[in-house]
Design goal:
The complex is a heterodimer. By secondary structure, chain A is α/β, with parallel strands linked by helices. Chain A is 32% helix and 21% strand. In chain A, strands 1, 2, 5, 6, 7, 9, 10, 11, 12, 14, 16 and 17 form a twelve-stranded mixed beta sheet that branches. A three-stranded mixed beta sheet of chain A has the order 3-4-8, with no helix packed on it. Strand 6 of chain A pairs antiparallel with strand 3 of chain B, so a sheet runs across the interface.
Chain lengths: 400, 267
């Protein structure tokens, strides 16, 4: 059986409502600053707060990729071009070859906004969509993966994972498997999800959006703040003696709730199984983990169920927080954004806090951090859970 | 890095396509023992769901339960412990159309059920609820290359985790006006129960490797049309070899110029 982890996270980046690139995100985490604003997206009229990336629509795709033009791929490009990340990918392609770099990206809704807008421009006689609508390159879930493949001129394997809000955590596991099998030598992993009417009105229909900025793990929490974002990492095999300070993917764990389409298992059983599997894959015990980045969406049900699972496995010994108050819930991008937050936490010995959360839920017994603090971090775990009962946990660490 | 061969044993097959309601029928047609009769796909009522859910189940839910349960029964697998890989070009096309249509009107108060059924992993979620399997469940999309993407991840799971995996590749049609933009004609699905070890009732061993070769086509015109029209049926050249019990190689469409060479050794 081949070893799947550890893997080297040789480069990473994230773009969120705090701005393009890592500095904006790190600044927000250090100051515990929320990037959420009252919803004024497109023509949406909902009493909710969102995490909108300000400069998405300023992005111009290269002429040769114009057919991919939509909010999701603009956000993908904005994210790829932050922090010199696209250049690091090109260097990786030069090292390994264009057939040996795989693409594993997560999204929940891809470019569905393009279709929502096209439905407003249907032919009044025939009902046909406008001639400029391109299903394959904007609407289809794989449009993100195909855009990235064309953007870098790659000829290796590619797949998009779409398991709602766990999508871009699961990409790390899928990439790790292909690296272990030797079908590729490097993997572009990440997630991109962009604001659209389907998710804003959809979560509102389930009464899961809050009229205030989201308050994870607060006793008065009453729903999510939807965000958008893009985060990417380049995964490669690690040498036997990685350089001190190298960031590593140590383990991955996946499970299913098999319980309900839009509610978590009330005891957090699937969540606990994913965390246990990630620890097992990393060869670690709960006590080896220094910080947990919780899924912590701020819905009553999610935080209660996740809280039970975390308490059962880690007790109140491990510092933890949800960073959804900083970034909003970026749905299919959340797994990758929070993996990048974990990488920043490890690199800067920063334990993030939880802006907007004020009065912790007394029924959840965790060592929950309201304010950021400094502390030596070696290993951290991040949770991502999605509709359909899809759970994924990742363990990241730093080489000593 | 020495590549690990991506191989697995096939222990069960499930199939449903226009004119081909199950694997025994498809097998007979692919062996040339029975003529292909063109007809709309027939979706059985999923007996595994409680009556209320059975009535509400969408076409993709009926489709994935039909082919997944057929493959699991064929291979005598316990679905309640089975890891799964779902792969499809799209999700529930009718649900997607209904949401887009309503969001284009002044009344945007969409139904919560329609919303949670809109996720790409809706069929996978219902599979989990129906089978009670808490094992890992993957849900992929690679447009026309979705079968190849699913096969790659399923085989990597077999190699890495050494646990059985049920691969379910499926596609469904959209209603107009999306149908004109994405003209998938009907539902179709194929399920392969894959195991890491040979069993007395294994059907064949498959080994997958990358190739720049062109994908194999089918001699029978109507079957070749299905292969081209429905992404999950890019698997048909592999299924034809399995149906005929033939050894040898076959090349499947993936992401040109990267294609998948499948070597088949019948048991």
């Amino acid at each position: 059986m081949p070893a799947v982890t550890p893997l080297l996270i040789s480069s990473f980046t994230a773009t969120t409502c705090l701005g393009q690139g890592l500095d904006a995100l790190l600044g927000g985490l250090r100051e515990s600053r929320s990037g959420l604003t009252p919803c004024a997206f497109e023509t949406v009229k909902l009493d909710t707060w969102i995490g909108e990336v300000a400069t998405v629509d300023d992005q111009k795709l290269p002429k040769s990729l114009a057919r991919y033009d939509c909010r999701n791929n603009r956000l993908a490009q904005l994210g790829l071009e932050a922090d010199g990340f696209a250049d690091r990918v090109r260097e990786g392609i030069a090292r390994h070859g264009k057939t040996r770099v795989g693409i594993f990206l997560g999204t929940s809704t891809a470019g569905i906004l393009q279709t929502e807008l096209a439905y407003r421009r249907r032919d009044p006689e025939t009902g046909a969509l406008p001639g400029d609508f391109n299903y394959r390159t904007t609407h289809n879930t794989f449009s993100l993966g195909e855009f990235a493949r064309e953007y870098f001129g790659l000829e290796g394997p590619a797949m998009v994972i779409s398991t709602a809000c766990s999508s871009s955590a699961k990409v790390f596991a899928a990439a790790a498997r292909q690296l272990a099998c030797g079908t590729i030598d490097a993997a572009l992993v990440g997630g991109v999800d962009s604001l659209c009417l389907t998710t804003l009105y959809g979560f509102a229909s389930l009464q899961l959006t809050s009229a205030t900025p989201c308050r994870p793990y607060d006793a008065a929490r009453n729903g999510i703040s939807i965000g958008e974002g893009a985060a990417f990492a380049l995964l490669e095999r690690v040498s036997a003696m990685p350089a001190i300070g190298s960031l590593l993917l140590l383990g991955t764990g996946e499970s299913s709730d098999a319980y309900h389409m839009s509610s978590p298992h009330p005891e957090g059983l699937g969540a606990r199984m994913a965390m246990e599997a990630a620890l097992r894959s990393a060869g670690l015990k709960p006590g080896d983990v220094d910080y947990l980045n919780l899924h912590g969406t701020a819905t009553p049900a999610n935080d209660a169920a996740e809280g039970k699972a975390v308490a059962a496995l880690f007790g109140d010994r491990v510092a933890c927080s949800s960073t959804k108050g900083v970034t909003g819930h970026t749905l299919g991008a959340a797994g990758a954004i929070e993996a990048v937050i974990c990488a920043l936490a490890l690199r800067h010995d920063l334990l993030p806090g939880s802006p907007n959360t004020e009065g912790l839920d007394p029924s959840i017994n965790l060592q929950y951090l309201l304010k950021p603090k400094s502390g030596r971090l070696r290993r951290v775990l991040t949770n991502s859970f999605g509709f359909g009962g899809s759970n994924c946990s990742l363990v990241l660490g730093v080489a000593a | 890095m020495n590549a690990m061969p991506l191989n697995a044993w096939i222990k069960g097959i499930g199939f449903l396509a226009p004119g081909l309601p199950d694997w025994p029928t498809a097998r007979a047609v692919l062996r040339g023992e029975q003529a292909y009769n063109s007809a709309a796909s027939v979706l059985p009522a999923p007996a595994i769901l409680p009556p209320a859910e059975r009535r509400r189940a969408s076409r993709v839910i009926k489709l994935t339960l039909a082919v997944g349960l057929e493959a699991a029964a064929h291979g005598a697998a316990d679905v309640s412990t089975l890891a799964t890989v779902f792969t499809s070009s799209g999700a529930d096309g009718y649900n997607c159309h209904a949401l887009c249509e309503q969001l284009a009107t002044a009344d945007r108060q969409i139904s919560p059920t329609r919303f949670h059924n809109s996720v790409h992993n809706a069929a996978a979620g219902y599979w989990g609820i129906a089978t009670r399997s808490m094992a890992p469940c993957q849900v992929l999309c690679a447009y026309d290359a979705s079968f190849g993407a699913g096969l790659l991840d399923a085989l990597a799971q077999i190699v890495v985790d050494r646990q059985p995996v049920l691969l379910i590749a499926y596609d469904s049609e959209y209603p107009e006006p999306l149908r004109s933009a994405r003209p998938v004609p009907d539902v179709a699905g194929v399920a392969l129960l894959l195991t890491a070890e040979a069993a007395p009732d294994s059907l064949a061993r498959i080994t997958v490797s990358p190739t720049p070769a062109a994908a194999e086509t089918l001699a029978a015109g109507e079957l070749e049309n299905l292969r081209n029209a429905i992404p999950a049926l890019r698997s048909l050249p592999l299924l034809q070899k399995l149906a005929r019990g033939e050894a040898g190689g076959v090349c499947l469409d993936y992401l040109p110029p990267l294609q998948l060479a499948v070597d088949i050794a019948p048991c």
